[in-house]
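Section 3.1: Structural characterization of target chains.
Under the original work plan, the team committed to producing a structural model for every single-chain target entering the pipeline before any wet-lab resources were allocated. The record below documents one such target. The sequence was received from the expression subgroup and is listed exactly as submitted; it comprises 213 residues.
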Amino acid sequence: MVKSIACWVIAVGTFTLSATAQQPLTVNAFERSQGWEALFDGESLKGWRTYAGNGTPTNWSVIDGALAATLGEALSTIDEHRDFEFSFEWKYEAGGVARIFLHAVEEKNGPVGKGLMMELGGNGRVSGGNGGLDQTQRVVNAAPGTWHTARVVSFGYKIEHYIDGELVLSYMVKLDDKKSRDGDVKLFGLPLAGVIVLDGNQASFRNLKIKEL
C-alpha cells in the first residue's frame, strides 16, 4: 500500500513537472481576459525573425526560458503593432548592452534610426531613455546580471517608459510633414504601426507580453 502511494506521488509529481515544462506560458488566465497576449512561448523563436531579413538570427537562442542574444543581428516581431502596452523582463551582463525599438520600419544596417528606441542597460546610458532625444524624469542605472522589469505604453503620439515599475520617461513623438504610402502621418519619418525589435549583446529577455490598445 505504501509502495503504491509512493508510486502515485512520484507519478503525479512527474506529470506536474512535465506539464509545467511543456507550458511555459507568460500570460495567465486573468491577463488573457484583459487582452494580454504572449509574444514569446518560452521555448522557441516562434513569432520572431531576423530584423529586416528572413529566418531567425544565429546569435539568438532560448536559454532557461529566455531569449538570449550575443553580438550580431537584431530580433524582430513578425507582426506590426500600433497602439499597445508592452511588458517584459530583461537583463544584461557586465560589458553587454540591451535595448528595444518600437514602431520600427525594416531597412538594412540595423534598427538604429529606424524606430523609437528604449535604452535598457549598458554603454553607460540611463535605463529607460530614448537615445537622448528627451530628458528622463529620473535617473535609473539598472545593475547588470539582474533581472529587471520594463513596460512601454504607446498610444497615438505619446510614449511612456517604465523600469522596475517606475515611470522613467514620458514624451510626445515629434511629427514631420512626411506621409506614408497609406496616408498615415509618420513619427520621426516612421509609420505609426511597425515591428518591435529586440537588440543587444550578452542580453536576455523573457515574459514578453503585449496588449493592443
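Residues 88 and 208 are 4 Å apart (CA to CA).
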